Amino acid sequence: MSNSSSFNEFLLLAFTDTQELQLLHFSLFLGIYLAALLGNGLIITAVACDHRLHTPMYFFLLNLSLLDLGTISTTVPKSMANSLWDTRAISYLGCVAQVFFFFFSCSAEYCLLTVMAYDRFVAICKPLHYGTIMGSRACVKMAAAAWASGFLNALLHTGNTFSIPLCQGNTVDQFFCEIPQILKLSCADSYLREVGILVVTACLFFGCFIFIVVSYVQIFTVVLRIPSEQGWHNAFSMCLPHLAVVSLFVSTGMFAYLKPPSLSSPALDLVVAVLYSVVPPTLNPLIYSMRNKEIQEAVRKLFQLVLVQQQ
Known about the structure:
single chain; mainly alpha; two-stranded antiparallel ribbon; 11 helices; 2% strand
């Protein structure tokens, strides 16, 4: 029986063995990564620099963009480097870091999306008390709680996962170090402790999910009572981007972790992993800015400021 600590490295799943296709994979991931950096970077800069966006909704959006950058930066650069240098290896400590930071970013993001649902609920269902409930101090505490929850969750899972003895080699059937794939390498019955922790995490996950659903049920109940069409439009414009982001994040994550074993295959697992780890961080800035005139105006002024400084 060999323990995971006896491995100096893990071997990740390669997208392809053909050099030309490896370069194509590198180019595709580079484009996606740069798009995510640009989109999230613009939102972070716009919210930080424009005083009109110093509101709870945009404060949480800034935190969401930071976590999206963390999520995609944990997995994509290493995959790009492996394709470019024609290797599959990742060091043991590199694998530990990937598991920790990916789990931290995803857990904190989900907690933050729950907080953002509460923010939308208060804004629409209790507008007269919004300023009191969602004060600056309360917003900072909620965001800090989301980050702290993600940190503790990642610390627990990472420590537990890498304390389990591995008997099935060091080949991870995924393009990054993912807990379910690492558990497949464990000795018989030794993974049950981590499974128990995953069950607890799943309960917390569904608790947050139910909170989000209940919040939106109450939001839509209030919205349907609004007599004016403009009121409908304003309410939906506030809620639909967040609802779209939550749907994308939850649907891809649930399919990745809850799909039947009969559907599991290296190719399908690879595609699903890309869908839930790469696509949401790239699309979230687009979803939030597509119909948000305040974000668009802030970004436009940001570009104008840059052009003026260059002249």
